[in-house]
């Protein structure tokens, strides 16, 4: 299991469309992936779970992945969250 601190650099934050894309990115991997924000921890593959976090631009989260492809999962998620022009 690996965890990494990440900052959401998507201009609009994780509202409906960016959350849907985020979940698609996370769902490409076999690993169990979670996003932690403040006292909440949700499954990164759950649109409803991710929406409950209400993450805006600049927010800091901890993303953790556990499984055979955990490193690739973390890299892909970090790449998506750091793309300021993501939709």
Describe the structure.
A 4-stranded antiparallel beta sheet has the order 1-4-2-3, with helices on one face. The chain has helices spanning 16-27, 47-53, 70-81, and strands at residues 2-7, 32-37, 40-43, 60-66. The termini are far apart. It contains 3 helices and 4 strands. It is an alpha+beta fold.
Shape: globular
Which sequence of strands runs across the widest sheet? 1-4-2-3
Hey, roughly how much beta strand do the residues contain? 25-35%
Order of helices and strands: EHEEHEH
Can you count the beta strands? 4
Helix/strand class:
alpha+beta
Rg of Cα set: 11 Å
Low-confidence stretches: none
Average pLDDT taken over every residue: 95
Major beta sheet, specifics?
4 strands, antiparallel
Question: How large is the count of helical segments?
Answer: 3
Q: Alpha-carbon distance between the termini?
A: 29 Å
Helix content: 25-40%
């Amino acid at each position: 299991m690996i965890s990494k601190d990440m900052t959401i650099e998507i201009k609009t934050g994780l509202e409906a469309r960016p959350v849907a894309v985020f979940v698609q990115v996370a769902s490409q991997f076999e690993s169990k992936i979670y996003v932690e924000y403040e006292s909440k921890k949700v499954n990164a593959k759950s649109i409803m779970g991710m929406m409950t976090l209400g993450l805006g631009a600049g927010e800091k989260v901890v993303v953790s992945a556990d499984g055979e492809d955990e490193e690739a999962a973390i890299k892909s998620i970090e790449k998506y969250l750091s793309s300021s022009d993501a939709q």
